Amino acid sequence: MTAPQLAALTRTSEPQTMLRRFLALDAVTTTGNGLAYLAASGPLGRFLGMGQGLLLGLGVFLTLYGAGVGILATRKSPPVLPVRAVIEANVTWAAVSLIALAAWLSPTVAGAVWIPLQAVTVGGFAALQYTALRATRS
Hints:
Elements: H1 3-10, H2 15-39, H3 41-48, H4 52-73, H5 80-103, H6 109-137
Helix pairs in contact: 2-4, 2-6, 3-4, 5-6
């Protein structure tokens, strides 16, 4: 993605603002997902074909992770190392989600759609954050 495309997407040409907005979007999405897993792990587990305990654990992790990314997004100039950690965690999450789907999960049709959809979303966040981080360094 080019700098003008990123600028159009974030409605700013300031690289730090782009990065902060992509981190904030990641934080809101991740925390919301985590809270949904916490609040409705039973019904969501049945709907997606995943165990309630798994969704509860993921809910706790995602809520805390999303809050951490949110804190990072509030920094005027997010530090490079924590941003890289977020990017790497997002790439890892996307890959592990797809591996889990292929290797050991037996989801419902809804789960078989949801898992790759969220993996692509998280991978997209990683790509946007990486591109914005690179723009801050040039």
